[in-house]
Amino acid sequence: MYTSTKRWMKRNRTNFAIGFGVIGAGYVVGQYALNKFSEMRERMNNDRIARENLRRRFNQNQEDCSFTVLALLPTAVDDMLDAFPVEDITRELQQQRTDRGGARGVGGTELTPSEFSSPSASGTGEDGKSVISAQTDGFLHTSQLGGSISEAPSSGEILRGKKTKAQLWTDLKINSITRAFTLIYTLALLTIFTRVQLNLLGRASYVSSVISMAIPQRRDSTISLENYEEGQSRNATNFETHRNFLAFSWWVLHRGWRELRTVVEAAVKETFGSLSPREELTFAKLSELIIETRKKIEGESEEIRRNQKWLSYILPPVEQEIYVLHESGVLPRDSSRPSNSPSPSTSDPGIEIIEASQFTAPGSPPAKTQEPTVSPSLRHLLDEASDIIDSPQTTHTTTLLLDALFSQLVDISVKTQAFKSLIPSPETPFPRIQELHPDETETPKAKLATILAVLTRQAHAIIGSDPNVYMQAMDGVRELEALSAVIYSSNFGLGDSSSSPPHGLQEQLDVAKETAAAENDNDENTKPEPIAPQSIPGGRVWNIFDSVWARVAGS
């Protein structure tokens, strides 16, 4: 039995060898396939996590932008209320009406917002004139002023140096329209700049988090005090650089809108200067006047508007950058120096100090000992922000934001409050057949004074409404989110050869891996942890946003 089995095994040993070889090869191939499948599944899972992480960071960043704009806007509005004394002019008109003791209308009557916001669109009263004042929480409301606007001034008024009623109405008209339009432009530019700022910094934060995850963790328990201090110093420098970069919002909030006001006021005077506050306008005529005003501000043709440069209203010239940092409170200001002069000393890591000679030759003028300059990292952020703001995509997005804001102001607010007969009430029952009288078929009109009253109220609603309908109107512009996505996802895999530190993500990852490998050379048991390719935004994660602008702009 044993001999026969041995002979059978010997005769079939070739078949056994082939069989075992096939089984072994099948096992190896199967294990390889399982490993590849597991690796692919893990890669897909990591890719999904990276996508969700990037999307979550991006969405949170856009919410932060909206809250930041709402927090910064009152700073500019407070200055605008002082620069455009609409309420003071209204009180002066009211005082003149009270002094005359006119029989029609009672001067100084304080009305509720609902009473003031419902003037007759047809203007049936002979002396009806809505005063352009609509305050909530202490904002004065006046009803109507009688008498002719073009009345000749009395000798007593001339002697007292007071403005005539016609002059006050002209000032009221120009200031009301200019203030509302300047607020619209300031809100749009502040939104654009805030999106650029926070998305640039959000991108840097995301890149830093990816780099920190990519650096292999050391397995030993030794602590390097030198590396710790170096990391702390680097973090402090980044924090100060980001803080300095955010401080440049001071320019648009305190200087940019004032420069913009000059342009807006000139356009408003040219368009609305010849109109009387008692003149009745149709909604189509009002829209035509506003479009004409926007053309004078933004450009007559589409080509001019496409090349419109808003950078000077958003960022200061290079020679005034240190001045902005002083005025915003980032850099301390020496009391012995004028307000527009840089401080001689600073400990800000985002600012470099250039040392000058402490000794001068006899009779020569004293030399400055220290001159603060913008650091290379802050300069890189400012230059990148300037390039983005001057880009055609940003200019196009700004125009769309202005379209949305003016649509909210004119097509919704003014139309529903000044031209009420254009909006039928859903609660009013209408018969199926109704005879139309000739007066009812005429195009509804509203007096310019009524329109000015609505514009005055909307100037306060831009920052005081809850929810803020103007912010919601801008959030509805899809190109704004697309522009933010382009900024947030740009420069992930590109290095910057103009600066000494590596700005490209792949370059920074290479440096991080080389540093970690050098630290772990003496530890044989320590192996660098592999970097998942899906964690690097230069891979498939880039595809989340790489074509979003084309998709949104083309839809």
TrEMBL record:
Q: Where is this region: Disordered?
A: 94-129, 329-350, 497-538
Q: Which UniProt keywords apply?
A: Membrane, Transmembrane, Transmembrane helix
InterPro entries per record: Peroxin-3
| Segments of skewed composition (Polar residues) | 111-123
Q: Which GO terms describe its biological process?
A: protein import into peroxisome membrane
Q: Name one GO cellular component term.
A: peroxisomal membrane
**What sections of the protein cross the membrane?**
16-34
A Pfam family annotated for this chain is Peroxin-3
* A molecular function GO annotation: protein-macromolecule adaptor activity
Its name, as the record gives it, is Peroxisomal biogenesis factor 3
